[in-house]
Structure formats: structure tokens, C-alpha cells
Amino acid sequence: MDTSADKDNKILIVKDLKTYFYTYEGIVEALDGVHLVVKQGETVGLVGETASGKSVTAMSILRLIAWPPGKIVNGQIYFKGRDILKLSESEMQKIRGNEIAMIFQEPTASLNPVYTVGHQIKEAIALHRQINSKKEARERSIEMLEIVGMADPAKAFKKYPHELSGGMQQRVMIAIALSCNPDMLIADEPTTALDVTIQSQILDLMADLQERIGMAILLITHDLGVVAEVCDRVAVMYAGVIAEDGDIKAIFKEPKHPYTKGLLSTIPKVVGGKGILQEIQGEVPRLINPPNGCRFHPRCAHAMDKCRKEKPGQYRVGNSHSVTCFLYK
Amino acid sequence: MRIWSYIFKRLLSIIPVFLGVTILTFSIANVIPGDPVTLALGHRASDDQKNVFREKMGMDKPIIIRYGMYLKNLSRGDLGVSLRTKRPVLKDLLTYFPATLELTVSALAISLLFGIPLGIISAVKKDKPVDHATRVFALLGVSMPIFWLGFMLLILLYMAFPIFPGGGRLSLATTTPQTITGLYTIDSLLSGNWGALKDAIWHLILPAATLGFCYVAVISRMTRSSMLEVLRQDYIRTAKTKGLSESGIIRHHALRNSIIPVVTVSGALLGQLMSGSVLAETVFNWPGIGLYAVQSIIFLDFNAIIGFTIVVSFAYVMANFVVDILYVIIDPRIKLQ
Amino acid sequence: MKKDTTMSTLDVTDGFSELGERFKSILREIRYSLHMIRHSPLTLMGIGIFLGLLIMAIFAPHIAPYDPEEMNPPILLRPPSLEHFFGTDEGGRDIFSRVVYGSRISLKVGFIITFLSMTIGTIVGITAGYMGGVVDKVLMRITDVFFAFPYLVLAMAITAALGPGITNTMIALSIVWWPLYARITRAQALRVKELPFIEAVRSLGAGRLRIIFVHILPNCIDPILVQASIDVGAAIMWCAALSFIGLGAQPPSPEWGAMITSGSHYLRESWWYATFPGLMILVVVLGFNLLGDGLRDIFDPKLRR
Question: Are the Cβ atoms of B143 and C162 closer than 8 angstroms?
């Protein structure tokens, strides 16, 4: 268990999280022991290719994995010192939207088309805060719309989602998410579906709000460029495992895990002047029958005998920089 | 303002359909085997009567002219005279229409009242025993002949256990309530005639239940699939992350969205109910336009049959029109151009 | 799967292997369908009911213990017993035998109506969907007119005008039913004609008729088949309804609907008379509904594994 000093600092501690999906074709071991730490007020990026388990991790944290077919089979998730995996559903509902909020990739689909935007913000507020009058809820919602940078918030309040652009819809999602001043925001590919120009606006907005409210952000993305711009620390995910995590300079300057190295070498600009685009051999494994031992070993140039048989643990390689690879044991 | 122009445009588009309806019924009445004069006057008409009729109706004139006359008569509300009752068909239909309305509306209410919750439960507890049971029940409802169900209910709840009356709208002893709407239940309610109210309701239950049961199935299936579709949507996921409870999600988010297709189906349902009421009225001796039509058929009263067909289809088209408008009002996504 | 990169110099072999692949994929489809059917008890029940009906109709003379028309006044209106499973009617005829023979009528009616309306409707629908433009508009207006009538009401009118009888009932119901297939097929045709491969086939010089029947039609079949299997049952039921009103089969025909009408006159004393024919209708329609539902699940892409 962590000491109380740690508890103040680390708002989210995920330990050995395993989430499996029981399907017609077999058991999909989507998460195979995920370790993750998020400190108060910081922005942690969670990167990886599609189907690496990033979204599953996020949904597992909020305990929104639908059974059937999915189930969290192992691990602990400490949020503000409590293991939320042990909470009842109604206790969990008090945390969702209130202490941990989440926004998604497709804002159009994520907003209910038959209610106005303002109504949907009001709902979030009314759910978790003692609101004495409709007027109060309405005012607070308009306030939120202003905070997220909507032009003419009073008018926007009455609009339906389909009347707004993608960027504005995402702002609304952020307004909903932040309406109860959560301690942590999980953002699952929030800018992927938006235009490049809007992307940076939204990211700026999120950074701005983070400073104001002092919340932590877990930013899920496959875009290393975004990570480099906004994150304090980053965790690299591969096939349901955190391959490497550390603060941003460490990861980008001195990547240790073979996968991270390969990933970074695919970006011509980040790595200082090497200029040779390298390809990581092989394919992401199907998680129904994952490879034994280290999940990356079939594609790893440095694979040892040990890697085929045993699963590596997390090994420290620097100040808050750890790698899941036998090379660094 | 935009909604009024939409309504107007829809009304305009109905006109060709109405026209088509008249053409179709006119064809049925005239351009098919059988001497139309005999059809209109009956087999017992004398040759003189037939000739007079032939002249009056312009049977020798080209078919377009006859169609024109037919339309003209329609626009004046002249549907001919019933061979059987010797009264104008339109008058007959108007007399018997309230009874059918009462029956159909009650049946619709029953099917919605039972069908929608069943569909919701079925969707929320998908693949669990409740779901399977509901689906089998729904399937039975759809597969059951309405008239057979009516008879079975009569055997059980009227003959074996005399709980309900065996037919008609009121017992012989009860006096008809003061006519305000023609619907005995409403009328007795409005005039404070509690005895008649109870009697009217008691007579209404079996026929309405028979008619309604078969469509409980249709509604619950529709609600179920619509609800399942809605629950798959991303905004349900958002609602969960807000911290809404399961019942809260269903009540505030899923319900509104899943009801919309059910509203649209209600229009078509009304048509089925009208078909079904023909059968239910026959079984329960319910004096509505359905029973009128069946009696007319036995009598070979073609004016009445054709008149009935036209009136019912007009009503059906208007009902669908109303449902269309409702649909546009309810769903904010529909852009009114 | 290891990629075989060695070049084959024999096109013929390629051609054959192409055919072989086609067969294999069709076999896979059939295997998958059979698998789905086996795992769905309800669908199996539907198939069972359908087969039962077929057997009953084909082997009626062997299954029915008595002559369905043979009057036997001394034993009129007897309740169900070992000699007469469903009891006897007002002429002393064995109701069970009449029900069995009635299956012939129902099966004939169901299939003919469905086949006729399906054929007409599909042709109209595909033409409207593929041609588009004025042809589409006109054809759709016509189907709209038919849709303006509740089914039974229009069928009643047509049958009444043609004269009561089962043949006329079949004609009337086919006329009322085809627009449904037209609508389904048209919707499908609209979807399929936008698919890229149609463009490809057209650029290879395929004529309109060929495109419609060889390429578009097969892709529209799924929902048509589902609807048709349900409709056989529905047609049987509506025909019974028309007979019940007096427009369809006439006595002494052992049609189930007509039997219910006769039975309704003896409801209090002889409950069995109206009950069993109706039960048969229920079971048969249920069977076809289950079959249709099962087919729908097989064809549903969202449920595919």
C-alpha cells in the first residue's frame, strides 16, 4: 500500500489490471496486467496503436466494461486512495461524471440528439450537485459553455447537437465533463475526429481548463505529436501491456523499450536527424491467443529465450521512468 | 412557420393518393366481371328499374365520364344508397363509425399500454428468460387469428365463467347514454350516467382485449428492436459516464429515442386495427362499420361495400398523415425545409 | 497464412480454383446457416411445423381416419373422443379428418398467394429501384395507392366484386400483397445499385436486363425470402379470415376459416368445433413466423460471428 504522502500526490494508481472478453471464438485477453499512475494535476498520455487496449483501460477505470462479454478479472484501481473496483455500482455512479469524467472521440454520436445541449449539461450538474432551482442549474450551464469558449453561450444553450459543428460539439462534451469539477478527466482520442485547426484549439482549451481547475488528465491517443505537445508523462501501450512509461523528455530522448524505439523511429522529425524511416516487423498479435511470455517478443529484434517463456515486470530505469522488458531487469 | 409549410406540402402530396384510391375503388366497382347494374341494384331488380338506373348512371357513356360522375358524387358525399338498409351509405357509415372508433382506440391503448413496457423489459434484459418469454408471447399474439381468439375468450369468459357479456355494446336493460360523441363510454362519463358507464366498459373489454392482444405483439417487438438499437448508441455511453443509473438512462435517454419509431408504426398499426375490427365486430356483434361491411357482403350490397372501402381508406390515409406530422414534431433532427 | 508468391502459368488451373473457391464459399454459407439453425430451437420448431404441415397435406388420405365429406347424422356434434379426436360437426362429419384435408387448401393458398405477390412485387420493385426517374415515381405512386388501404378491407372489396370463392380470394390477396414486395425490393435495389461492383460490371458492357437479373436481384433476395416465409403463414390466416366472413371457401369445403364460422353457431354446446381449426391456424402461422425469424437471424450481418 502507498504511504499517505504518495496518496496525496498520486490520484490514480492502476495495479495489474486484467480485463478479458469472453467471446464466441475464445477469450480475448485485452488487458494483461496494466500498471498506470497519474498524479494530481498532471497530464499523462496513453499511446499505442489501435486495439492496444487504450480504450479498454479507460473504460475499465470507470468500470463501464459491459458484461457480457467483458469482465475485469484482476487488479486494483486506487482512486484518491480507495480501490474503486470494490465499490458498489451506486457508489461508482457517484464518482462517474463527478470525480472522474470522460470525453470521447465522436462528439456527434456522443450527444443525445433529442435534447438540447444545455439540457445535457444541466443533467450532469443536477446529478451530482445540490441545485436549488432550475434557474441556478441553467446559469451554471451557461457559465460552463462560456468557460469552454462557446461564442454566445446563452444562445448555444438552446441548440440541438446537430446544429453545432464538430469542434463546438466537443466543447459541449468538455463542458458536460467539467461541470462538476472532476479531479480527473479521461479523454479518449478527443481530437482525432476533428479538423487539424480545431484540434489544437481543443487541446489548448483542455490545457487551460486543467490549470484553472487543477485536474489530472489521462489523454488517450495514437498521435505522438499530440503527446509531445500536451503531456507531462506518457505511457506506451502494446497489446494490453504498458511497455514503457516515464516523463516526456525521457521517453522521447531516451526510449528504452524496443517497441517505443521502433514507434519513435517512424516519426522523421522527433528523433534528432536520423531521417531513416524504420518499419517494425510483424503485426499486432490477436489477443485471443496472445503470444507466451512477453507479448512483443515475436516482433522484437532483441528477443531472448526468456522473453518467449516469461512475462517481464516493470523495471525502473530512471527517475519515474520504467520499462517492461527483460533487457532492463 | 416552417412546420405549416411542411404540413401543406404533405397535404398536397396526399391528393394524388386520394385520387388513386378513387380510381382503384371505381375500377373494382365497374371494371370487373359482373353486370354493374345488377351489382348496384341487386339481383331482384326488375328490367325497368335496371334501364332507368342505366340511364341515370350513364352506363352507356364512356368510362371516363362515368368516373367523373363518380368523383362528383363522392365530393358531395354521395356514396349511393344501401340495398339493405335503404338509407344513404354515408349516413349508415357515420352512424356506425363511433362504435368502431371506440373499439379501435381502446384496442390501440391496450396494445400500447402492454406492448411498450414489454418491449422495454425485453430489450433491457436481453437474452435472459424474461426476454425469451416475452418474444414467444409476442409471437403467439402475431400468429393468432383474431376471430378465433374472440371465440375462445367468449367460451372461457362468457360461457364457462360468465364474467363478461357475450356481445353488443350495452345490455338490453341499459338505456343508451345521451349522445354527445357516440362513444358510449365517454358519453356516459360526460352525462354522469355511472350505470351506463360500467355497462359500456364491461361490454368493451373483451372485444378490445381481443383486438389489442394481437397487436401487443407487434408493438413490443418494435419497441424491443428500437430500444436495442438505441442502447447501442454512443450517447448512452456518455450518459453512463455522467454517472446515471440504469433506470435513469432508460427513462431519460433511451425512452425518448426509442419511442420515435413506435410512433411511426402506430399509423400503419391503425390500418391493421381497422382490418382487425371487421373481424372483432363480427365475433362480438359490435355494431360498428366493420360489422356493417360484413353484413353488406352477405347481402351483396355493393354500394355499401365500396362506400365502406373508400371511407376506411380515407381515414387510414389521414391517420398516417397525422402520424407523419407527429413524427416531425417529436424528432428535432428532422430538418424542415 | 503464408503467401504463395510462385506464379502460376496455367490460367486454366486458376479458373478451376476460382470455381472451387466459389463452391467452398457457398458450402461455408450453408454450413453456417445449418449451424445457426441447429442452435436455435425456435427455428427448428418452425421447420418442424412446416414439415408437419407438408406431410399432413400430402398424406391426408392416409392420416385422416374418416372421409371428410361423409355425413353421419346420428353422431352429430359429439365432443372429442378416441374415435373422433376433434369431435364431430353438425353433419356428423369427423372434424379431425376435415382439418387434415383442410391443410391441403391452406398450403395451396399460402404458397400460391405468396409466390404470385412475390413475383409481381419483385419485378415491379426492381424495375422501379434500378430505373429510377419517372418509372420509379409512377410505380411508387401506384404502390402508394395500394398502401392506402388496410389489407383486409381491400381484399374484401375485390373478393366481393369478383364473387365469393377460394380462387377469387387468392387473386384478391395476391393483388393486395404485391406492393409489399415491391417496396422491399425497391429499397434493396436502390442500395445495391450504388455498390461499386455494379459500376464495374456495367463498364464491362453488361446490358440492363443482365445487370438487373444476374447482379442486382441475387443481392436483394435475403429480405424477400424472410418476408415470403412469414407471408405464407400470414396468407393462410387472411384467407381464413375472408372465409370466416363468408367470402372465401364456401361450405362444405373443409377450410379452417369456414369451419370456424360454422363452429361459431354451436359455440356454447360444442366448443370443440370452432376451437380446433383455429388452433391449427395458430400453430401453422406460428411455424412460419418462427421460420421467418430464424431466416432473418441467419441473414442478419450484425449477428454474424
Answer: no
